[in-house]
Structures are given as structure tokens and as C-alpha cells.
Amino acid sequence: MPLKIVFCGTPAFALPTFRQLLEQSDFQIQGVVTQPDRPRGRGQAMASSAVKGAAVAAGIPVFQPEKIRAEEGLEYFRKLAPDVVVIIAYGQIIPQRLIDIPRLGWINLHGSLLPKYRGAAPIHWAVANGETRTGLTTMQIDAGLDTGPTLLKHETRIGLDETSPELYERLAEAGAPLMVETLRGLENGSLTATPQDNSLATLAPPLKKEDGKIDWSFAAQKIYDRMRGFKPWPGTFSSFREKGCQLWGKPAAEADSAGSGRALSGAAPGSLFAVGHRLFAGCGGATVLEIESIRIEGKKRMAIRDFLNGAHLKSGERFGE
């Protein structure tokens, strides 16, 4: 008898696992649970989740409750009586009465090495915090926030210039075989869950717009890490001449700093200086960020050469004022 599975997920991160589970002859996906269609884009047209699109294409029935904890959610899972529920970035907290239904529980694929980075945005925060390694964890969920016992882990290096979307794609692909191995290990009894050490837990809360505001007292590397981590949203931004601006750049090499003709160790955080057609900003710890492109509020993103040609920088001007 194939393992009866309900797949619960919403964004593209869940797709590689969903598709690989479909290909396994010893697994049977009975149904897919995903978030309701939502208005998106400028026209606010109704759009379905990435997981719904894949489920419909595969001919798998889709259930989209507004609140999974409602009575219709309980009836759905009782009726299907799955052996296991696979849940990946679904977007709602699962109540205990639903967790108790499948005999193997609810198995989550989480984008960090738990107990580090519990929460909604583990990949973004790992990059934004300058981590050099991260990974994936499969776990049996409980009623807490990513607090359940862990099963298997996959560890990987974070590239020096890797962005959160790039890491997101790599981890999504790596999660598919990890979940297959986890489910088979649970079914044949070879896999034992390990309780998390809560004293080692860190949090990865949902991203907010204000997370992207640049604090120029931070070192250039920390600002750059946040540029990588908060891509594409909320991005990293400051202000210039009382207008908001989104910024892209990276830490300046020592040779660039020395060649600027300035004593940068005394430069105020956020202070601007141009060297030819290049733009630098002073940061905390006597570090320097080279600004590679900029988008001023109400305008399109532009190269720094174009920005400098139009801005005519004045001595002492700063970002953030």
C-alpha cells in the first residue's frame, strides 16, 4: 500500500518537493491544501498560489480554507485520514486537533538548521545576518512555532555574494530528496525524531518594510549582507535630499578606499563622496560602501554615473538626512 499523503503548502519553495513526491510509486498524494486565491499586482486580479497551479496541472484535488483551524478543516482531514501530512511554507498555524490525525504526524521542511532561525523568513535572515552556512531541517510539527522534534538535516554553505532568492532556489531543490528520505525513514521505522534544544533557538520573524532602512552606523559588510538578504523585498533604502532612495552596492576594497583621497576613518556615517564616476558612502567602523546603483523615489533605477551627472553632489552631503 502506498503511503497516503496530504500536501500542505503555498509558495514556489514547496514545488520541487511536491513534484518529487508525485513521482514516487510508494507515495500517493490524496489532496493539496493551500492558501485561498488572493488579489495581486496593480490590477488586483485574483491569483492562485504556486502550489495550487501545480496541483491542478497534476489533477490533484485542492482545498483552500480561509482558516484551516475551522470545522471544515477538521472534517477534511478526518475524511481523507492520511498517513502523513507534508507541510512546507503553508502560512497558517496548525492546531493540535489536526496534528493528531495522521499516524506519522505532520512533517515540515524548514529553511534553516533548527533550532536556529525559527519563523517565517529563515532564509532571508540567515543571509541578512551574514551567516556563512545554513541548511534545511525536516521536523514533526507541534502546536508551537517550529519547535517540534527534528528528523533529518541538510547543510550548505552560503556564498559570499549569494542573495536570498538564489539561496531560496537552491534550498528548495535540496529539500525534495530530503523529504523523500524522511518519509521513507518514518514509514520503515529507521528514523527517530530528536527534541530541539530551545536554549539555542533564534528567531526569523516576517520581514517588515522598516527592516530595509539602512543604519549607516553599521559596518559596510553588514549593510551589504542586508542588501543580499532583503532582496527583493523590502530591499535596502535610505533618503537623499529628503526623498526616499533604494540602494544597491557592496563593501569597497581597501584600494578603493585609499584611492579616494579622503581620510575615511573620520567620515560620518552616510557621508557621500565621488571618485570619478564612482560613489562611496561612509559606514560604521571606518568602513566604506560603494554604491553601484540607485533608485530615487518617483524615478527608475539608474547607474551611479547617471546619478552623479544629475545630482551635482555638494560637500558634506549624506544619505539619511
Describe the structure in your own words.
The protein is an alpha/beta fold and 321 residues long. The protein has 9 helices and 15 strands. The protein folds into 2 domains: 3-200, 3-Layer(aba) Sandwich (Rossmann fold); 209-311, Roll (Methionyl-tRNA Fmet Formyltransferase, Chain A, domain 2), CATH 3.10.25. It is 27% helix and 26% strand. α1 (15-23) links the parallel β1 and β2. α5 packs across α6 (164-188) and α5 (122-128) runs antiparallel to α7 (220-229).
Radius of gyration: 24 Å
What kind of assembly state do the chains in view correspond to? Answer: single chain
CATH topology of the largest domain: Rossmann fold
List the secondary-structure elements in sequence, H or E: EHEEEHEHEHEHEEHHEEHEEEEH
Gross CATH architecture of the largest domain: 3-Layer(aba) Sandwich
Low-pLDDT ranges = none
Instruction: Please estimate the helix content.
Output: 25-40%
Determine the CATH superfamily of the largest domain: Formyl transferase, N-terminal domain
**What is the C-level CATH assignment of the largest domain?**
Alpha Beta
Count of alpha and pi helical runs: 9
Strand order of the largest sheet: 5-2-1-6-7-8-9
